[in-house]
DNA sequence: GTATGTGACTCAGAAATTTGTAC
DNA sequence: CGTACAAATTTCTGAGTCACATA
């Protein structure tokens, strides 16, 4: 979870901001202030005219007709300019060093051929495509009994037969996979009617959250030292100290912001005496504590089988008790029924709050959501919930407010649940509706490149980026509260470079910014001339840290999109472009004559094209080089084996020619088979190596799980005779059960 | 009306854990 | 059989998107 990206060569190491130790003071006031100024400035700018184009020999005269910014920097930004400048320098440093940075290859955009205009019809209607008249009986009380038999089923889904064979015995050990599992008819919620009125459920019953285990004080021989001298800490202070100790090996315990935030919060937990004594984090020695935890984890690994099984069984029991809820007659799996334990906050990237104490959540922090007529979850003895409410317009079971950002956290259902699945399905249906009108929308925004109104031009260019490059919308963020990252609408001038000519291409825009999770987006793309000219215009008289699209935000953009198509938002473009790219790449890359591994390589490559489009990166696995080497060793061995086998085949053939008897002919056949088998194995290994190498820094999971209409993949499997297990593991098959059930091989996104 | 804040939900990669496999 | 290690899967929780409430 933590964002230690420093080991990723190709990502910018934003490093810690060394000199901003005072930054957080009064941030609230400051922030508010900033924002006001900002808005005012935008307002003011709007009323001004572009009379300040000095030096501009720009031929595009029409821009004179347009209002545009006078180049004064927004005040709120001025305040932060210094900081950003510093960062920028760092960024550039990084850039230089990391010239080999990840560059998203050209987006292979498939243009859907059909383009008929469909009036934005209301689609909130949760109409399902196939209507089975399965009645949706809502009889809350019944549910339980009805579901009593289900407990068993859910946990250990019958898996592929291959797995079963492993479990040959079929013993019913608790926490073990049961071998035989009555196929138990699974609930096909996708064949049922959906709620249409914002109601999410009629009945909801659950057992509440599982709290983090209580803190166990350290044994007395494990000491903390201050200024070289052992010091016994109060339990409160000690607990927080252990959080730090457990992270000692991690890089961010060396970062200034992390240390400063930690120390500040730690001191809050200290007794008066401790507070007086412990004044310098540098004098704190946690190593003995750290060693102790390492030893503990070693001990855990070395536990006997029985002990391990016992723990497993206990976890299973908790899962059975708390891991499921009953929603509308069905037992459903809960995603995160365990409350986040206390610890030190680790933001991603250069987060101003890293190191802060994430406090322990108690029952009185918890809001329970369930139906009135359900059996309410019990708070632990002697405690009370903050509130029990019955809001069936939301999907969460439990919520609490987290203390770092003040945001709300939720316990919700598993992706395999009806409530998540329906929404997921709907998402792809919206994307498919976009497919039907995307040409109209593209023509529209290309027209808008020429608009007289600056606002509309900016909107058009932003939309062009979102569509062409699958950028995220880019909401504004509160400065100082989070890492400095941007999306499309929040791009700043410093994030792009314009090259009228670059490497033989015209009108190239070079993007370099940190996006979600502080993942670097670096890309050079040729754009339409009009886009290029517009960008020049938008950047006129601006400072590097001014907004590129100063007249635009996500709200304006999404309002516009909503008018173009019902349910259309910026992120629908990402879904649409991801899915259509997969479909088109699969078509292009799959060769019907190839064998299964080769086809799967094609699938992975199609998946990879999408991951690259969406900029889904990962840090190369620590063991990457080594594992490639191992694989290469295997390949070499296999090659040797192959040439041996071939040699043997040859001699067998020669032998058979001379002897001409049945036996030697048989021997030839055997050898031939052997050669073939080895060839196949070698091929498989080579494919694997290719796949792995190409995947070094690319994360396929996110797109597979969140952007690719699963029906495309299912259809591809069916058409190519690939078992769906080859591309979706068990969890994924559960999540996409609806798609696996409904898509046939002719499915078209 | 607009700007801002809030809530609910999706999506994100790393870390932890489990499983598979070669010896 | 165990053992060691790598690969696969699951868990974790932070970071976005976006609608809507509120001032």
Automatic annotation (TrEMBL):
Alphabetized SUPFAM superfamilies for the sequence: DNA breaking-rejoining enzymes, Eukaryotic DNA topoisomerase I, dispensable insert domain, Eukaryotic DNA topoisomerase I, N-terminal DNA-binding fragment
Q: What is its EC number?
A: 5.6.2.1
Q: Give a GO cellular-component term.
A: nucleolus
* Pfam families registered for this protein in UniProt: Topo_C_assoc (PF14370), Topoisom_I (PF01028), Topoisom_I_N (PF02919)
Top-level division of the source organism's lineage: Eukaryota
Q: Where in the cell is it found?
A: Nucleus
UniProt-listed PROSITE patterns: TOPO_IB_1 (PS00176), TOPO_IB_2 (PS52038)
Region listing for Disordered, in residue ranges: 1-179, 640-663
**Which spans does this entry mark as compositional bias, Basic and acidic residues?**
1-10, 19-31, 40-100, 120-179
Q: What does this protein do?
A: Releases the supercoiling and torsional tension of DNA introduced during the DNA replication and transcription by transiently cleaving and rejoining one strand of the DNA duplex. Introduces a single-strand break via transesterification at the specific target site 5'-[CT]CCTTp site in duplex DNA. The scissile phosphodiester is attacked by the catalytic tyrosine of the enzyme, resulting in the formation of a DNA-(3'-phosphotyrosyl)-enzyme intermediate and the expulsion of a 5'-OH DNA strand. The free DNA strand then undergoes passage around the unbroken strand thus removing DNA supercoils.
Family named by the database record: Belongs to the type IB topoisomerase family.
What is the protein name given in its UniProt record?
DNA topoisomerase I
Provenance organism:
Cynoglossus semilaevis
């Amino acid at each position: 979870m933590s964002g230690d990206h420093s080991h990723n060569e190709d990502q910018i190491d934003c490093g810690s901001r060394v000199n901003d130790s005072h930054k957080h003071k009064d941030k609230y006031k400051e922030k508010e202030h900033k924002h006001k100024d900002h808005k005012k400035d935008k307002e003011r700018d709007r009323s001004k005219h572009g009379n300040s184009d000095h030096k501009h020999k720009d031929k595009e005269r029409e821009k004179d007709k347009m209002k545009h910014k006078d180049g004064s920097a927004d005040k709120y930004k001025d305040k932060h300019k210094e900081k950003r400048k510093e960062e920028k320098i760092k960024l550039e440093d990084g850039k230089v060093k990391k010239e080999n940075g990840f560059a998203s290859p050209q987006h292979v955009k498939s243009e859907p051929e059909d383009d008929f205009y469909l009036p934005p019809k209301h689609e909130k209607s949760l109409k399902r495509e196939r209507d089975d008249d399965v009645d949706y009986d809502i009889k809350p009380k019944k549910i339980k009994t009805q579901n009593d038999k289900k407990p068993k089923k859910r946990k250990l889904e019958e898996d592929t037969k291959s797995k079963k064979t492993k479990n040959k015995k079929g013993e019913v050990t608790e926490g073990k996979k049961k071998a035989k599992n009555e196929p138990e008819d699974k609930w096909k919620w996708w064949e049922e009617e959906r709620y249409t009125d914002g109601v999410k459920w009629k009945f909801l019953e659950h057992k509440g959250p599982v709290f983090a285990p209580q803190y166990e004080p350290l044994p007395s021989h494990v000491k903390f030292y201050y200024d070289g001298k052992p010091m016994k800490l109060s339990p409160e202070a000690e607990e927080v100290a252990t959080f730090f100790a457990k992270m000692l090996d991690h890089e961010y315990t060396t970062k200034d912001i992390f240390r400063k935030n930690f120390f500040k919060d730690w001191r809050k937990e200290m007794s008066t005496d401790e507070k007086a004594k412990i004044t310098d984090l540098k004098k704190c020695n946690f190593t003995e504590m750290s060693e102790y935890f390492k030893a503990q984890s070693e001990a855990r690994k070395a536990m006997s089988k029985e002990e391990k099984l016992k723990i497993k069984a206990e976890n299973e029991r908790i899962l059975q008790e708390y891991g499921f809820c009953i929603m509308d007659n069905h037992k459903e799996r809960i995603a995160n029924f365990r409350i986040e334990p206390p610890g030190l906050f680790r933001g991603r990237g250069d987060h101003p709050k890293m190191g802060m104490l994430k406090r322990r959540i108690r029952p009185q922090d918890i809001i329970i959501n369930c139906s009135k007529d359900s059996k309410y979850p019990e708070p632990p003895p002697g405690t009370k919930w903050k509130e029990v409410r019955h809001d069936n317009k939301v999907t969460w079971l439990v919520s609490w407010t987290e203390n770092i950002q003040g945001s709300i956290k939720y316990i919700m259902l598993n992706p395999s649940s009806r409530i998540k699945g329906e929404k997921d399905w709907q998402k792809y249906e919206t994307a498919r509706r976009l497919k039907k009108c995307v040409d109209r929308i593209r023509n529209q925004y290309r027209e808008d490149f020429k608009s007289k109104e600056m606002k509309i031009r900016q909107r058009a260019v932003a939309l062009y980026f979102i569509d062409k490059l699958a950028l995220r919308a880019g909401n504004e963020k509160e400065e100082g509260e989070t890492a400095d990252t941007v999306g499309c609408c929040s791009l700043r001038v410093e994030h792009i470079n314009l090259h009228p000519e670059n490497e033989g291409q015209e009108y190239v825009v070079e993007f370099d910014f940190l996006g979600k999770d502080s993942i670097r987006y670096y890309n050079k793309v040729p754009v339409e001339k009009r886009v290029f000219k517009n960008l020049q215009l938008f950047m006129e008289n601006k400072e590097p840290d001014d907004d590129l699209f100063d007249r635009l935000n996500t709200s304006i953009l999404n309002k516009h999109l909503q008018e173009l198509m019902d349910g259309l938002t910026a992120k629908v473009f990402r879904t649409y472009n991801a899915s259509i790219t997969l479909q088109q790449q699969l078509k292009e890359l799959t060769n019907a004559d190839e064998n299964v591994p080769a086809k799967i390589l094609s699938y992975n490559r199609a998946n990879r094209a999408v991951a690259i489009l969406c900029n889904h990166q990962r840090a190369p696995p620590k063991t990457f080089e080594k594992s490639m080497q191992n694989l290469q060793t295997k390949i070499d061995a296999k090659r040797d084996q192959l040439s041996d086998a071939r040699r043997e085949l040859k001699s067998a053939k020669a032998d058979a020619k001379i002897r001409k008897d049945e036996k030697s002919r048989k021997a030839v056949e055997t050898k031939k088979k052997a050669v073939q088998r080895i060839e196949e194995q070698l091929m498989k290994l080579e494919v694997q190596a290719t796949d792995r190498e190409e995947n070094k820094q690319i994360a396929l999971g996110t797109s597979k799980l969140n952007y690719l209409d699963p029906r495309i993949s299912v259809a591809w499997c069916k058409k190519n005779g690939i078992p769906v297990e080859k591309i979706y593991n068990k969890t994924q098959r559960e999540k996409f059960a609806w798609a696996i059930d409904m898509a046939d091989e002719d499915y078209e996104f």
